[in-house]
Amino acid sequence: MRKMILPDIDDVALSQVLYALSDPVRLDVVRTLARDGEASCSVLDGGRPKSSMSHHFRVLRESGLVRTRHEGPSHMNELRRDDLDRRFPGLLDAVLAAGDAGPARRDG
C-alpha cells in the first residue's frame, strides 16, 4: 500500500488549511469528523465518485487537517483536532461554528 503523506503540523501553513476548508465537500468531511470522530472514506463520501473523493482526501491530508490510516481494505480518517488546535488556536471552532450559522448576510 502507498504511504499516506502527513505533514508535520509545524510545517502546515494557515493558507493550506484555509484552502482545504474552502471547498464545501471537504468542509463537510471535516464537520462530520469533528462531530462523529474517526470514519472510513466510504462513510464520508456522500455517494460522490471515488476519484473525486480521493482528491479531496489528499488535499485534507496534505493540508494537515486529516490523518488517514489503513485498516484492512478500508482507509480510516480522523481529524487532527489536537494538532490543529495547538497550531492554530480557535480556528476549527470558528470555522465549525460559522458553518452552523449558514451563509453570511450582506446588508446594504
Task: Indicate the topology.
Elements: H1 14-21, H2 24-36, E1 39-40, H3 41-44, H4 50-62, E2 66-71, E3 74-79, H5 81-87, H6 91-101
Helix pairs in contact: 1-4
Task: Note down, in words, how this protein is organized.
By secondary structure, the chain is α+β, with helices and mostly antiparallel strands. It has a single domain (11-100), classed as Winged helix-like DNA-binding domain superfamily/Winged helix DNA-binding domain (Arc Repressor Mutant, subunit A), CATH 1.10.10.10. The chain contains six helices and three strands. It has helices at residues 14-21, 24-36, 41-44, 50-62, 81-87, 91-101; strands at residues 39-40, 66-71, 74-79. A three-stranded antiparallel β-sheet has the order 1-3-2. α1 runs antiparallel to α4. It starts with 13 loop residues before the first helix and ends in a 7-residue tail after the last helix. The relative contact order is 0.19. The model has no long low-confidence stretch (mean pLDDT 88).
